[in-house]
Design a protein that fits this description.
Helix content is 38%, strand content 19%. It is an alpha/beta fold. The strands form six sheets. A seven-stranded mixed beta sheet has the order 14-15-16-13-12-18-19, with helices on both faces. A six-stranded mixed beta sheet has the order 9-8-7-10-11-21, sandwiched between helices.
Length: 489
């Protein structure tokens, strides 16, 4: 595998063949800046053009591919990822800085994502609709079916370099679409390794391209009218600008958030603390649904924080390849320095630091703030870092309003044993998902996932993604000489 520092750069996957380019892309190791993770290539404009032309041509075949064949491809990819679990886990840990224990979980989730794609490919069904609702429609019957929308442009992020790309590849293949995917520039080697597994599964020739590329070339993909859908996972500022340039194609945006957790009076305190620590600091907080704002009932505020800070202090920070490591580096030193500035701003505005607070290279420790003004960046924007701010509340309705006081609306966790409060949260929270008695960071790969407000547009999760990747079409069958209605008494 040509992904180890000092070896030849890994080729890129262009419409079913492996190619190189003059533009070498060096990949950093976040935990060891002096030891590169490897290298690959950025696609050239000519290579991009070949990929798009091939995707357009391949769609004429993928759109007619039978369900058993789409299912076979996805099943073999799932099994291939499972067979290379340890290799892929180490690669994610090396180039993304994700602790190996979390990297292996990501590989397992990708196995599931492609397996779910198999199942959805084999049960993509329509329905029959009665149309004879008035005399002039007598003798008509309706049958619906979903048809693939066309070639797809996909852009995936660095924080889940395998599974979030799988959430674009698997439903595209299941729906019968061709796809050109731009993997993250910070950690593309994982997906290029998976491209070899995809190649072995023998998809339609030219139907899948995995091309690292510059942002400028990525902008070309966004506006390219030959694509019929753009699916992007990344930052809100980038995503909404893409939508403006996307033209007439469909757009699915899975963007950021500053997810809230509510810990109600009477909640299971130990469980809420345990899960909130996981939600706040897993992968150094670099997930869109990482816990960032905690709203805790005033009667348990101090007890919760004492336990939370103590548990966070015990987290093992270190080498991502060490199985004992629970918190590794951020993706690069620039992100750690940006987080450092946000924490210092919060303190200057009156916030009080209970734990952590200073960057060390690309590493940033678990950090907890209280008394933070709501307009500080660590409250109002997406931190995407191992930083949480905590606030007490007295009235449950006030806590819901505090969560809603945000540009974002992805998911919220609500720890409560009050059924009425659970229903109230479901009714009133302006988010895509309400997670009762668990953290907003919870996700399993077949559930609908996405947000409202600045957090995005559309939903992922295999079945839900496939709805955007397909067009609903109805066929009306008219009886040429329908029988006359029988007279009534």
């Amino acid at each position: 595998m040509a992904t180890v520092a000092g070896t030849r750069p890994h080729p890129i996957f262009l419409a079913g063949r492996w190619v190189e380019s003059p533009d070498v892309l060096e990949i950093s190791n976040p935990a060891r800046p002096n030891e590169p993770a490897g290298a690959t290539y950025n696609a050239t404009p000519a290579q991009y053009e070949e990929a798009v032309t091939s995707a357009v041509a391949a769609f004429q075949e993928t759109r007619r591919l039978p369900a058993y064949e789409r299912g076979r491809i996805l099943r073999e990819v799932s099994e291939g990822i499972r067979a290379r679990r340890e290799e892929l886990g180490r690669l994610i840990a090396t180039e993304a800085g994700k602790p190996i224990r979390d990297a292996l979980v990501e590989v397992d989730r990708a196995v599931l994502t492609f397996r779910l794609g198999t199942e959805e490919a084999e049960r993509m069904v329509g329905e029959s609709i009665p149309l004879d609702l008035m005399p002039s429609s007598r003798g008509r019957y309706g049958i619906t079916r979903r048809f693939p929308v066309g070639p797809i442009a996909a852009i995936s992020p660095f924080n889940f370099p395998l599974n979030l790309a799988a959430h674009k590849l698997a439903p595209a293949i299941a729906a019968g679409c061709s796809i050109v995917l731009k993997p993250p520039s910070k950690d593309p080697l994982t997906l290029l390794t998976v491209a070899r597994i995809i190649e072995e599964a023998r998809p339609v020739e030219g139907s899948v391209s995995i091309l690292p590329m510059t942002r400028q070339l990525g902008d070309t993909m966004v506006s390219d009218e030959r694509f019929k859908l753009l699916t992007f996972t990344g930052s809100p500022s980038v995503g909404w600008r893409m939508k403006e340039r996307a033209g007439k194609k469909r757009v699915v945006l899975e963007l950021g958030g500053n997810a809230g957790v509510i810990v109600d009076q009477g909640a299971d305190l130990e469980w809420a603390v345990k899960r909130s620590v996981v939600g706040s600091f897993t992968y150094a907080g670099q997930t869109c649904i990482s816990v960032q704002r905690m709203f805790i009932h005033e009667s348990i505020f101090r007890a919760f924080l004492d336990r939370f800070v103590a548990a966070a202090r015990e987290l093992t920070v270190g080498d991502p390849l060490d199985p004992e490591t629970q918190l590794g580096p951020m993706v690069d030193e620039a992100q750690a320095q940006r987080t450092d500035g946000w924490v210092r701003e919060a303190i200057e505005m009156g916030g009080r630091l209970l734990l952590g607070g200073s960057a060390h290279g690309a590493f940033f420790p678990p950090t907890v703030l209280v008394d933070t003004p709501r307009d500080a960046q660590v409250c109002s924007n997406e931190a995407f870092a191992p930083v949480v701010v905590a606030f007490p509340f007295r009235d449950f309705g006030d806590a819901l309003r505090e969560v809603n006081d945000s540009f974002y609306g992805l998911q919220t966790g609500v720890f409560t044993n009050d059924l009425e409060h659970a229903w109230q949260a479901f009714e009133e929270l302006e988010v895509g998902g309400v997670i009762i008695n668990d953290i907003p960071t919870y996700r399993i790969d077949h559930m609908p996932y996405g947000g409202v407000k600045d957090s995005g547009l559309g939903r992922e999760g295999l079945r839900w993604a496939m709805e955007d990747m397909t067009e609903l079409r109805i066929m009306v069958l008219a009886h040429p000489d329908p029988p006359a209605p029988r007279p009534t008494d």
